[in-house]
Amino acid sequence: MSIALAEEKERSTLEDRELVERFKRGDQSAFSRLVAKHSAKAYQIAYGVVANREDAEEVTQDVFVRIHRALAKFRGDAEFTTWMYRIAMNLARNKYRWNKSRGSQRNISIDAPLPGSDDDDGRHIDLPESDLSPDEKTQVDEIEQQALEELYNLPELYREALVLRNVKELSYEDISSLLGCKLGTVKSRIARARDELRKRLGL
User: Fold this and answer.
1) Do residues 80 and 16 lie in contact, with contact meaning Cβ atoms separated by under 8 Å?
2) CATH number of the domain that residue 140 is part of
3) Does 97 share its domain with 134?
4) Measured between alpha carbons, how far is residue 82 from residues 8, 12, 100, 170 in Å?
5) Which end of the chain is more exposed for a tag (fewer CB within 10 A), N or C?
6) How far apart are CA 147 and CA 54, in angstroms?
C-alpha cells in the first residue's frame, strides 16, 4: 500500500471513529453520514455473495439496521469498516443459504457485474470489440453467463475470497480480517479459485 493510500485510509478510520462517538452522544446525523459513506461497499459485498440486486439491497438495509441497534455498544476493538464487513458478510451468507434451501434460482445479471472487478480476477474474459453478428453476440452472451454461473458455483470458501478481492480497495489484509483467516490462506484461496474458474471455463 502506498503512503498516500495509507494516509487516506487512516483519515477515513479517524473520521469513522469520530462519527461513531458523535452518534453515541446522540447525533443522528453522524449515523446518516456513516450510511452514506459505507453503504455502497456493503452492497458490493452483499451482491458478491447473493448475486442478485434485490437481495443485495435487502441485505444492505439489514446491515445498517443491525449496526444502528448495536452501535451504542460498539467498543472500537476493530475498525468500523471491519465490523461492518463482517456483518454484511454474515447477513449475505444467511440470505444466500436461505435462498439455496428454498431452491431459489440465483438471478445472475450479466449487465450488473460486481462493482470493482479487475481484469486479473478470474472473471473477466477478453472479447472482440468489433461489431458482432446476432449469432456471435448470442455466443458471447452465453460465455459471459457461463462465467458468472461458474463463479457462483465455486466452493463457498473460494468464491467468497475471490469476490471480496473484486471489491475496490479491499486488500488481502482486509479480506484476512473479514474472513478470520491468515493472509497466506486468503492468497491461496484466491489463487485456487482463479485456477478452478479457468479450468471450468476451459481457459
Assistant:
1) yes
2) 1.10.10.10
3) no
4) 16, 13, 27, 10
5) C
6) 21
> Within a domain: residue 110?
no
Q: Which domain holds residue 21?
A: 1-105
Looking at residue 106, what is its pLDDT? 46
Cβ atoms of 28 and 22 closer than 8 Å: no
Triad 14, 59, 106: Cα angle to 5°: 135
List the Cα angle 154/160/162 in 5-degree steps. 80
Instruction: Answer whether 0.90 is exceeded by the pTM.
Output: no
Contacts of 4 (CB under 8 A, 6+ apart): none
| CA 108 to each of CA 1, 54, 114, 139, 199: distance values in angstroms, whole numbers, following the listed order | 33, 11, 10, 17, 21
| Residue type at position 197 | L
pLDDT mean by block of 10 residues, the chain; 203 residues: 73 92 95 94 86 89 95 89 90 86 51 39 38 63 69 83 71 84 92 86 74
Domain of residue 82, CATH code: 1.10.1740.10
Do 194 and 141 lie in one domain? The reply is yes
Total residues found in the chain within this entry: 203
Q: Among 31, 45, 49, 53, which Cα is nearest to 170's?
A: 45
